[in-house]
Structures are given as C-alpha cells and as structure tokens.
Amino acid sequence: DADVTQTPRNRITKTGKRIMLECSQTKGHDRMYWYRQDPGLGLRLIYYSFDVKDINKGEISDGYSVSRQAQAKFSLSLESAIPNQTALYFCATSGPPGAVPEKLFFGSGTQLSVL
Amino acid sequence: AQSVAQPEDQVNVAEGNPLTVKCTYSVSGNPYLFWYVQYPNRGLQFLLKYITGDNLVKGSYGFEAEFNKSQTSFHLKKPSALVSDSALYFCAVRDYGQNFVFGPGTRLSVLP
Predict the structure, then answer these.
(1) Are A42 and B46 within 8 A, CB to CB?
(2) Which of A16, A68, B34, B40 has a Cα at 20 to 30 A from B110?
(3) Cis peptide preceding A8, ω within 30 of 0
(4) What kind and span of H or E run contains B41?
(5) 8 Å CB contact between A81 and A96
(6) DSSP secondary-structure letter at B9?
(7) So what's the pLDDT on residue A97?
(8) A61 Cβ under 8 Å from any chain B Cβ
(9) CA atoms within 13 A on the CB side of B55
C-alpha cells in the first residue's frame, strides 16, 4: 500500500461546485502539505500543517480551504470551483515528528478539471 | 525570499551520454537543496539532497549533484543517461519556514 494516498485520482467538476480532495498517510509524519502543479510553474504551496492544531496558508491559498482531521488525514476543499483551479494537486508529508524536514513524500496526485 | 530557477524547459541527450540538468537558487542563509523526479502519472520522488558537507552529493539511480556556493548552483548530473531516466526533474530549496520551494521543472528526454 502507498504511504501517502490521495483520493480521487481524477475528478471532473463544474464551475461553482464544492469539491474535496482527500489525503491520508501511514508514515506517522506530523507535517502535511498541499501543492498544485501547473505546466511551467512547478509546484506551488497551497496550505501546510505542522500538526493537527496548526494550519498555515501557503503561496496560493485564495479559493481553497483545508482541514486536518487527524495526524494522518489532511483534506483540501474548493468551496466554489473555477476553471483556473484546473491543475494536478499533490499531497505531501515530511517527518518524523519534531525533526527538521529533510525531504517530502508525495502522493500520486489528483488531476482536477473544472469545466 | 527563497527562489529556484531551472533555466532549461527541456534537455535532450542521447542514451549513454552524460547529462546535466541545471538549477540555480537564491536563499538567505545556508541553502538546503533537493532534487526530485516525476515520472508520468506519478508523484514526485526524492533523488538527493544537499544539507552540508561535500559539494558532490550522490543520490538514487546513479544521479549526483554538484553544489557550487559561489555560483549559487546545484546542477544534477549523471555520467551515462538511460532511456528510463526520461522524466520531469524539479530542483527545490527549503526556506526559513522549513517549507520547500520548487523550481518550474525541466523535462529530460533521453533518446535511444
């Protein structure tokens, strides 16, 4: 089983719809991240969480919200999807708890298309 | 603010030839530098990191990277490219907030 699991793998939705992307991890890491990938722009940080009670905005948080339901779960929501949120979304983790992060572990990604 | 540049969108190399994928960075303080690789329909995978120590860092799949402080560069290299190395490569730096800032990516094509 994958250490970092994202669901769904693909999603097509319409403008204005609410959508949630989910991420769960079995690595025991405290830090979790949501990135989006756009061609030619690399990965940009949307939100990050260093533990269950710590949520922080990243570079491009407008139009997104997150929930850290447990140490192992971190979900990303688009309250009212718009076409320029069409992208590949990645969840990532780093750890172990209390350590300085030395690398990220990524899920397989969710391809989201907003029509 | 920390930033990463990858000056080449695409690098083409013949199988068996050496390859270089370039990365330059801008950070305040000591740099913590990383390379990740993304194969089609997959998430990013860690290749190697530079935290401190030797300027030549060895990583997975025969890759290595050379840290050059004076040129603020961290170029990824491999002595002999394989077709299976074809992928999207990302350079990244860890910023003062302990988050990771990524470059735009370089697509490597190894031609048989």
Answers:
(1) no
(2) B34
(3) yes
(4) none
(5) no
(6) S
(7) 67
(8) no
(9) 10
H/E/C letters for each residue in A8-47?
Answer: CCEEEECCCCCEEEEEEECCCCCEEEEEEEECCCEEEEEE
**Percent with pLDDT over 90 in chain B:** 79
Region B22-31 average pLDDT: 90
* pLDDT tens-digit series, residues A45-101: 999 998 899 999 999 999 999 999 999 999 999 999 999 999 999 999 998 766 767
- Collect all residues of chain B within an 8 Å Cβ-Cβ radius of residue A100: 98
Does B22 contact A at CB distance below 8 Å? Answer: no
State the nearest Cα–Cα gap between A107 and chain B, in angstroms: 6
Q: Which chain B residues contact residue A92 at CB under 8 A?
A: 43-44
Q: What is the pLDDT of residues B63-107, one digit of tens each?
A: 999 999 999 999 999 999 999 999 999 999 987 777 889 999 999
Indicate the Cα dihedral angle B98, B99, B104, B105, nearest 10°.
Answer: 70
CB-based contact A109 B42, cutoff 8 Å? yes
- A-chain residues within 8 Å CB-CB of B45? 106
User: Rounded to an integer, what distance in angstroms lies between the CA atom of residue B112 and that of residue B110?
Assistant: 7
Say yes or no: A62 contacts chain B, CB-CB below 8 A: no
